[in-house]
Structures are given as C-alpha cells and as structure tokens.
Write a structure and sequence with these properties.
Elements (H helix, E strand, L loop, with lengths): L1 H11 L3 H13 L3 H13 L4 H12 L3 H13 L3 H13 L3 H13 L4 H12 L3 H13 L4 H12 L3 H13 L3 H13 L3 H13 L9 H11 L16
Length: 240
C-alpha cells in the first residue's frame, strides 16, 4: 500500500503519469469502478493512456461492450492509438463493417496505422480475401500503404504472383514505389523495355525521393539514362 499512497500523493499534485499508474494498481486490486473514475480523470487532463490500459483489461476479461466504451472515450479525447484498438474490437465482436468504416475514415484523415493493423490481423488469420479487399478499397481512396504492406507479406510468404498482382494495383493507384518494384522485377526477367517503361512512369510521378528504394532507383537511372531525361520523358542524348 506504500506505493499506492505515493502514487496517490503524486496524482493529487497533478502528476498525470502517476494517476495512470494508480489506475493500474486499483484495477489489479479489483477496484474497477475506482479505476475507471481515475482513468477518466487522467483522460480529462489529456492522458488517454489510462483509458486504453483499462479498456484492454476489460477486453482481456471478455467484457467487450465495456472495453468498446473505454476505447471510444480514448478516441474522443484524441487518441489515435485507441482507434486501432477500437477497430480490432469491433471486428472481434463480429461487426466487420464498423471496423472497416473506422479504419478507412482514419486513413482518409491521414492516420493509416489502424488500417494497416486491421489488414495485418486479417492476413495473419488467413482471411486473405478480406485483407486484399480492404487494402484495395483504401488504395482506391488514395491510401496505398496497406496494399504495399500486403504485397511484401505475400512475397515473403512465397506468394510471388499474389505480391505482383498487389503491386500492379498499387501502381495503378499511382504508387511510384510499386512502379519501380515492378520495373526491377521485369528487368530481372529480361523484359528491359517493359522495365524502362515502368521506371519512366515512376520517375514521372515526381515522388521517387520518398520511396524506400530511391537509392536503387538512382543507380538504375544512371545506368539507363546517363544524361538524364528531357522534360518530355525521352532520354537526353550525349552532347557531341
């Protein structure tokens, strides 16, 4: 009880982290109502961590409705981390539509973490069709990250045809990264003309500086177009 007394004193003095620690102690001791009240105090002060911690306890105890309420409260005070938890919980409860809506709305607002987490969860569970459908829906709305993640996962698992199909979808959605990945695959397969076409398309997006293999692309570009490209996309000839 000495530790709790110290945490209580710190919490009374306005230490929000101490308040969150006190939440854990109270909940572990079975004082659930008191823990929830303290968690809400912490959340009102801008710390949603205590609410998330408490929600995960409720989920662990199969109190899914109570957990959903707490995750939603954490979301309401601005926690992006809680959104992924809430989507996972909706899916766990069998409400896949609600889970999809949550992650797609978050992705539309610029937070792709919940979307990627849900796709990974479905893919890991063996629901490959659902993972792919959600990734494609997100890509169609302008968020290609889950699609690229899934392509890597499929390739690592040995499904190279599936990975290539996902890369094509990402390329169709405008991903320079996917275009160049496909260009490298065509190059290795001996399709040099096809590789060059895709590499030019990737360069035309103007976003290769942000892709993870941009150094590889620069090496490729120097080899293919030693004098660069003209504004119309044709290779610049050597000055004579």
């Amino acid at each position: 009880m000495g530790a709790e007394r110290l945490f209580q004193q710190a919490a009374d003095a306005g230490d929000i982290e101490a308040l969150a620690s006190l939440v854990r102690l109270r909940d572990k001791a079975g004082e659930h109502a008191g823990a929830e009240a303290l968690a809400r105090r912490a959340a009102a002060a801008g710390n949603a961590g205590a609410l998330i911690h408490l929600a995960r306890f409720r989920e662990r105890d199969a109190e899914l409705a109570a957990a959903a309420v707490l995750f939603q409260q954490a979301v309401d005070v601005g926690s992006r981390r809680a959104l992924a938890d809430l989507a996972r919980l909706r899916d766990k409860a069998g409400d896949r539509t609600a889970a999809e809506t949550l992650v797609l709305d978050a992705a539309h607002s610029g937070d792709v973490h919940p979307l990627r987490e849900l796709v990974r969860t479905w893919e890991k569970a063996g629901d490959h069709a659902a993972a792919e459908t959600l990734s494609v829906r997100a890509a169609d709305a302008g968020n290609i990250y889950a699609l690229l993640d899934l392509a890597v996962t499929r390739g690592t698992a040995g499904d190279h045809a599936g990975a290539q199909n996902l890369l094509r979808r990402a390329a169709d959605a405008g991903s320079a990264h996917a275009m160049f990945e496909l260009a490298q695959k065509r190059e290795r397969a001996g399709d040099h003309a096809g590789a060059e076409t895709l590499a030019r398309q990737a360069a035309d997006t103007g976003s290769l500086g942000s892709v993870s293999n941009s150094n590889t692309f620069r090496t490729y570009a120097r080899r293919q177009w030693p004098y660069g490209l003209d504004p119309d996309g044709t290779p610049t000839p050597h000055w004579t």
